[in-house]
Amino acid sequence: MGEKNATDSFLSDIHSSTASILSNTSDIFSTTTGMLSSTTSIFTSIIPDVNLMNMLTVSNVSWVYKEFNELSIHELYDLLRLRAEIFVVEQNCPYQDVDGLDQQCTHILGLTSVIFTYSPTHLLTYLFTNKKLGYDFIKNKLVAYCRLIPTGLKYSNSCAIGRVIVSKEYRKYGIGKLLITNSIKKLNEKYPGINIELSGQSYLLRFYESFGFTVVGEEYEEDGIPHYHMILDYKSNKNIAVDLMNVFSNGTDSLLSTISATTNIITTSAMSTPKSK
Which of 107, 114, 220, 221 stands the most exposed, by the fewest C-beta atoms within 10 Å? Predict the structure, then answer.
């Protein structure tokens, strides 16, 4: 009889402990859900829709400048692959991409380590559960590229920007604007006082005009695709890259500081919350 009572008491204790654990787990889940909801509201109130994710994307693209002989075999492969993917396959335009100019150009590589492609809720889910829902982690992927052509190589009195590309899935994040801004800045450093020219596809006319490029001559076809010859006069471009970079910098500094502080709070809370392996 004594043994039965002891067993019953033991089972009762287990039941009580289990009920307490379940209750605590429920409270933790409710608290976490509330934090997710509140923090998502904070994120979306800072920048509506997906603009917050766009800013995070841009802030995680690094820009690498290399002369041809500094490129690794893998970097050369990646940039030629991306050029073929866009100019030949996507645009359905068989043409001679490797034209003998690359060896004398400076190559700008836009590499990314982190891309947030979905909503703030997915980001928070990742922080709390380590489940990559809507969170795409990509290390050193080439997502943007162009080449800077020295003065006299393509245009007698101007340097040039060519082979401008952003990988299709990353075109909505403002990376192209940073690519051109960095290109102008780099050319101003390498060739001060020199005009910058390019052959731009017609559908990008307004995009290039936003940087100060103006059309020279009529529309023409190049490899079956409509283009415009455009030029950026050095008298008007000498400060444009600095101004544009200041706009990006000033516009994101306070936002990124807020994001960093909020993320630290979330991460700390997540670390103190029990997780399943």
Answer: 221
Residues 6+ away with beta carbon under 8 Å from 190: 106, 148, 150, 159
pLDDT confidence of residue 254: 43
Query: How far apart, in Å, are the Cα atoms of 202 and each of 199, 205, 207?
Result: 9, 5, 10
Contact assessment for residue 165 and residue 86, using Cβ atoms and an 8 Å cutoff = yes
Distance CA(68)–CA(103), nearest Å, equals: 5
**CATH code of domain 46-271:** 3.40.630.30
Query: Whole-model pTM above 0.70?
Result: no
Residue 103 has a pLDDT of: 98
Q: In the β-sheet with 106-116, what is the strand arrangement from edge to edge?
A: 61-67, 106-116, 135-149, 158-166, 195-201, 225-232, 214-222
Domain ranges (residues) in the chain = 46-271
pLDDT confidence tier of residue 132, bands split at 50, 70 and 90: very low
At 127 the three-state DSSP class reads helix
